[in-house]
Amino acid sequence: MLRARIFVALAALATLAVPVAAQNPQDQYQKYEYMIPMRDGAKLYTAVYVPKSLTGQSPILLERTPYSAGPYGPTAYRGGHRGSQKFKDAQYIFAYQDVRGHYMSEGTFVDVRPQLSQTFQHNGIEPNPHDIDESTDTYDTVDYLIKNVPHTNGRVGIWGISYPGGYAALGALCGHPALVAASPQAPTADWFLGDDFHHNGAFMLQDFISFYSGFGVVQDKPGPTRPPGIPININGDAYKYFLDLGGLANVETKLYKGQIPFWQDGIRNDTYNDFWQARSIPSHLINVKPACLWVGGFYDAEDCYGPMACYKAMELTGRQPNNWLVMGPWYHGMWASGAGQKFHVHDWGSNTSTYFQDEIEFPFFDAFLRGDRKYSRPKATVFDSGAKVWKTFDTWPPTQSKLANLYLDPAGKLTETKRSQIGKLSYVSDPANPVPYQGGTLTRRTREYMLDDQKFAIGRPDVLTFTTDALTADYAVAGNVQAEIFTQISGTDCDFVVKVIDVFPANDPVNPNFHMLVRGEVMRSKFRNSFSNPQPMDPDRIERVPFSLPDICHTFKKGHRIEVQVQSSWFPLVDRNPGKFMNIFTATDADFQKCNIAVFMGGDSPSRIRLGKTD
Which residues are within 8 A (CB) of 318 and not within 5 positions of it... i.e. 6 or more apart? Predict the structure, then answer.
């Protein structure tokens, strides 16, 4: 069952463990279980593993998770703890906590719980018996741990991947003096602008349905297991399943039937309003006290947006010295397991994950949790997925990165020079025949689609393809990717999907004629001027639709070509746009209509891509 597989996979990422050591975990660690009281009276289950050989004092690494801090019971031990072996050799203490309302913890679970105003305005939390958020829960947890866990040195670090990465980011706001280091990894930073379930306001259909059909079911009381999810019978073909499901109004009537409260939240909040803004982590990152190491993958299908957005937000508040970013050639959580040398058909030439764990992550925590709190490293460490090397910069995006134009041309060319006369290409976007996000028949949303071959889309009448000539020199990009589409459509809304592609030469010894997706992103055109105040498209005039794609670090090698594809659907990754200005969550099957789309190029309507070129 798709829901079960996706949910288990995401839960596993949140608690990635190293392979079981030769020794029995019970021989290595003493496990302590606590029900830690929060300021409002709720008690949160927390499991702590203290090395049995520890005679002095050691720091605590804390993870707060909605995916289970188990196994539960004093004799049930985790098989191992994630991260470099250096953490184990240094006798770190590991702590895991069920967030309120999930598994063994009391209280009410709230999806991406909004921050209290006092938290982000003052960034220091005074005890309050009634008001709570994830920062107050972190404060109370840290305070309890340093006072009750044996052998602690009084310093705590917090980390986590995905949802736990979001909790780590919010925990960094708690203001407790013992919390001195945080590594939010693939944090759930903003669920409307770019992470998980919306990208630029467009709804990420398959991921939401697959994940929330299990995760979104309410747990009524504490316990070691979660209630069963809602079955999804894909039957081997997700494209057909979601097409047959129809308009998003059918999700409630055919599938959820009142069992997923967060779905109702989405229906009521289809713009970037107070509901989503209160849940946006980057806007809260003001005067952060702990040192922060933001970590993500350039090919993370879930949370590529979050780590870069959070790092940038902290930098904007005053170039905070203890703020670092790492972006590798990874899928979601790949940096925490395995060697990290290969992903899909791509060999990165080195063990990227091992390097991160041993040479970046461990030294970061050790400097602040056991050392003199001096961590000497460039602000940004990123992997160039074309040159296949690590690069370091004094900030991100790099100061030497300058936006370079690549203009779309009606002849199918991608050129550095804008044509003087206006031209156009047109296509029909048919909601009954949307463009798939990946070739082949698929059951689940794959992680490989983020860098897969895009030849499958070439030749479709509803996909425009533009390509440079073979490059005569390397074309290095590090930083921003921006799209600017000038268009006229027959309806009042549509989506634009822009893909930036590296075309390998036909004589490449490993991947001949491979059209590697380097970055793709969707934009819902009604949000072209504001995510908070959408506006319908005017069928009687040419409209400008600008948007940002997540940053990249990629060198297009000499002899390769740069390719751009433009289309208006990406299914079932993204929900279908009905072609009319409306709350798409309420769209019925009758609302969907074909949309005639013209993309203009040259003259005063120069559709283009802008890449942060560094050479």
Answer: none
**DSSP label at 452?**
-
The end-to-end CA distance of the chain, in Å, is 48
Q: How far apart are alpha carbons 607 and 604 in whole angstroms?
A: 9
pTM, full prediction: 0.94
DSSP code, position 368: H
> How many CB atoms within 10 Å of residue 150?
11
Q: pLDDT tens, 415-458?
A: 999 999 999 999 999 999 999 999 999 999 999 999 999 999 99
Full DSSP string of 148-187: HSTTEEEEEEEEEESHHHHHHHHHTTS--TTEEEEEEES-
306 in Cβ contact with 195 (< 8 Å): yes
Beta strand residue intervals within 434-536, DSSP E: 463-467, 475-489, 495-503, 515-524
Average of per-residue pLDDT values in the chain = 94
Q: Position of tokens 């019970």?
A: 26
- The span from the CA of 285 to the CA of 318, in Å, is 11
Strand partners, 571: 436
CA dihedral 453, 348, 163, 14 (to 10 degrees): 120
CA-CA distance, 130 to 136, in Å (whole number)? Answer: 11
| pLDDT class of 6 with cuts at 50, 70, 90 | very low
Residue 8: which residues within 8 A CB-CB, separation 6 or more? none
Q: 562: which 2 tokens? A: 């740069």
What gap in Å lies between CA 36 and CA 283, rounded to an integer? 29
Averaged pLDDT for residues 239-244: 98
**Cα-based angle 427, 431, 435 (whole degrees, multiple of 5):** 65
Q: What is the pLDDT of residue 320?
A: 77
- Burial grade of 228 (CB within 10 A; 0-12, 13-18, 19 or more): exposed
Instruction: Check: CB of residue 151 under 8 Å from CB of residue 314.
Output: no
Q: How many CB atoms lie within 10 A of CB 332?
A: 23
Positive or negative, the CA dihedral 604, 609, 614, 615 is negative
The contacts of residue 74 (CB under 8 Å, 6+ apart) are 31, 33
Q: Is the peptide bond before 51 cis (omega within 30 degrees of 0)?
A: no
pLDDT-derived band at 126, boundaries 50, 70, 90: low
φ, ψ for residue 545 (rounded to 5)? Answer: -120, 95
What's the number of CA atoms in the CB half-sphere (13 Å) around residue 403? 12
Give the chain's domains with CATH numbers.
25-192+279-393 (3.40.50.1820), 201-277 (1.10.3020), 402-613 (2.60.120.260)
The 10s digit of each residue's pLDDT in 323-354 is 999 999 999 999 999 999 999 999 999 999 99
Question: How many angstroms separate the CA atoms of 525 and 545, rounded?
Answer: 6
Contacts of 429 (CB under 8 A, 6+ apart): 462, 494, 567, 568, 569, 577, 579, 594, 595, 597
